UniProtKB/TrEMBL annotation:
The keyword Hydrolase is annotated on this UniProt entry: yes
GO terms assigned for molecular function: fatty acyl-[ACP] hydrolase activity
Organism field: Oreochromis niloticus
Assigned protein family: Belongs to the thioesterase family.
Domain Thioesterase: 17-239
Key words of the record: Fatty acid biosynthesis, Fatty acid metabolism, Hydrolase, Lipid biosynthesis, Lipid metabolism
EC number: 3.1.2.14
Superkingdom: Eukaryota
Reaction catalyzed: (9Z)-octadecenoyl-[ACP] + H2O = (9Z)-octadecenoate + holo-[ACP] + H(+)
One GO biological process term: medium-chain fatty acid biosynthetic process
Name of the molecule in the record: S-acyl fatty acid synthase thioesterase, medium chain
Amino acid sequence: MDKVVNCFKNRPDAVARLICFPWAGGGSIHYARWGNVLSSSVEVLAVKLPGRESRAKEPFFENMQQIVDEVISVLLPLLKEKPFALFGHSFGAFTSFAVADALKKIHNMEPVHIFLSGASAPYSETRIKTPKRSDLSDEDFLKWLISIGGTPPELLANPEVLKLFLPALKADLHVVENYRWADGCLSPLFSCPVTCFDGKDDIPHDLQAWKDITSGDFTIKMFHGSHFYLKDSGNEKIILDYITKHLETSEMDYL
């Protein structure tokens, strides 16, 4: 469990659990600290992927199925205990969706809410036509990384740190670039609410296409900022207040 999930604060009496998935190349710390910020009604579990943090010596996953299988095998007993929601930004939005998809189809379970950030739906034309970046040379890859914003300048200026950071980022992008959702969007998978967050200055994402995954409520909330708008403390507070409000009422929907 500790190998795959980072939980800063265990909350056995929490109303619901929030499972958070990292962005490409990212670790679990950013989300795990949400556990210290959110009220006692929500327990935060941040997913740790191979090739980073305490799993730095493990080989990167090569496809989405490996991520889905590991996360579900570890978390399934917990997910059966009480309501849970999923949150993911960018690459994490795709892994959140892939995990939710498998939970529904294989275990007939669904989250009480799915929060998706900074990503087009995997079956949308916008996503399918997105150029592949994981095969770029390091030099071209860095140029693209700088262009989307959000990467700390001190990181980009430090070749040693970059050497550690780039392989994880490229590995995650390889996974998402080769992920195809076979079902398309013919009928809603879920009945739970879905909320999409995004930065107004990021490249445009087809957020509206996510509406097709649910028969429940669908909401889009836009924030000032580019791709990593959610790192802004003001934006983060709004997001966390929104998540808390929705999860604190989730128990009634779950019963």
